[in-house]
From TrEMBL:
Signal peptide: none annotated. One of its GO terms (molecular function) is nucleic acid binding. Residues 144-169 have a biased composition (Polar residues). Residues 142-183 are annotated as: Disordered. This is Integrase catalytic domain-containing protein. It comes from the Eukaryota.
Length: 183
């Protein structure tokens, strides 16, 4: 039964969960699951070559600490360490509730977002000492304010920029949403 079928949607409604799909032709949009699949393939390939049990690899994977979280997947899921082949004190194996997991996840997401934004943001600076606008609503709001202040000689917008012509003769125009900025 495909995930887009009526029966599956009905099943999801009856069990009260949401169906979230990603593009099969664009795997970067679902990086976490792609990474998990890669790790599983690597473990299967290694254990198949060595003719060993896959369960030991899964046990090691589940008991390895995630550096950014400070706990292993088993600790996050079951609030306790798993008994591995390494000796551990019996008090370490007792359940211990993990605290501030959501806060750690949110801080990690914020950190990753800041890294992404640092690499992938346009470096725009406002023209004519105008405030930097980050979304379309703010741009519309700023353009309305600037039209209100059109009588002020200190505030002026330079929206008529000449198009740029490349060496091949192609004319390139700046997108209209960046008219208020100097690149």
């Amino acid at each position: 039964m495909p995930f887009g079928s009526f029966e599956f949607k009905k099943f999801a409604d009856s069990w009260n969960f949401r169906i979230v799909t990603s593009s099969p032709r664009y795997p970067r949009s679902n990086g976490l699951s792609e990474k998990a699949v890669g790790i599983a393939k690597q473990m299967l390939k290694k254990k198949f070559e060595e003719n060993k049990d896959i369960n030991i690899s899964l046990l090691e994977y589940r008991s390895t600490v995630i550096p950014t979280m400070g706990a292993s997947p088993s600790e996050l899921l079951m609030s306790r360490l798993l008994r591995t082949k390494l000796p551990a004190h019996h008090l370490k194996l007792k359940p211990k509730l993990q605290e501030n997991v959501e806060d750690k996840l949110k801080s990690n997401q914020y950190q990753y977002k800041s890294y992404h934004d640092r690499r992938n943001s346009l470096h725009l600076r406002p023209s004519n000492n105008e405030p930097l606008c980050v979304n379309r609503n703010a741009i519309e709001h700023a353009s309305q304010e600037s039209s209100d202040n059109a009588s002020d000689p200190d505030v002026s917008l330079n929206t008529s920029l000449p198009p740029i012509t490349t060496r091949s003769g192609r004319t390139v125009k700046k997108p209209s949403k960046y008219n208020d900025y100097v690149l």
